[in-house]
Amino acid sequence: MNNHPVARIYRSVAFGLSSLRLIPHLILWRFSPNRDVIMQDVRRWREAFLGHLSVGSDVEAFLVLMASLPEYRTLFYFRIGSLATPVKFLCPVMESLILVCPKLGPGLIIQHGIATVIVAEEIGANCWINQQVTLGISGSLPGFPTLGDNVRVSVGAKVLGGITVGSNSMIGANAVVMKNVPPNVTVVGVPGYIVRRDGVRVNEPL
Asked: What Gene3D superfamilies does this protein map onto (predicted)?
């Protein structure tokens, strides 16, 4: 039934009408100083989430992402800044997702984003953050976290205080990390400890 010609026409018309609300967003993207970074975001999200769809161009991928993923909208509006305020009502953000970071690299993926707090000093390129994650301040450890490039923070993890997570490292699900993490490691547990370094299984404290 979904492949019936009438169904295909209906989906095309519905998508076209939905896309009208995105015209102001396309204009903001076109003239944003961050347009190249936004392009890198779109391409990474497209690869991660839209591979099963016949998406013909980066613009079409952008339209699909804005129409369907409030997590992506939150990131897009962050890139655009205050100029996005008049159009946010057209594509609402995910209200349970908080994103504050003065230096945010390209290609950040926020998967699901439910109950996620991202308050960081700096996040490098191509990082991946899952739902129910907290990056933020600790009462006993001042400052905000810094993530290197290609860092993944898994479901429910907490990364707290002015610490650094090195590039290519992974923070496992529900881990609590309050110490610096070297590059190329996997950290799990409460408190966090290293279980993999450069692809080799280990058991090391942070």
From this structure: Hexapeptide repeat proteins
pLDDT one-digit tens code per residue, 90-147: 999 999 999 999 999 999 999 999 999 999 999 999 999 999 999 999 887 889 999 9
What does each C-alpha distance from 63 to 1, 13, 45, 69 come to in angstroms?
Answer: 25, 14, 12, 10
* CATH code that applies to domain 96-206: 2.160.10.10
Compute CA 63 distance to the chain's CA centroid, rounded to the nearest angstrom. 17
What is the β-pairing status of strands 164-165 and 146-147? parallel
Of 106, 128, 103, nearest in space to 40 by CA:
106
195 or 60: which leads in pLDDT: 195
Map tokens 């998508």 to a residue.
15
State how beta strands 134-136 and 116-119 pair.
parallel
Rounded distance between C-alpha atoms, residue 182 and residue 193, angstroms = 11
Residues spanned by CATH 2.160.10.10 within the chain? 96-206
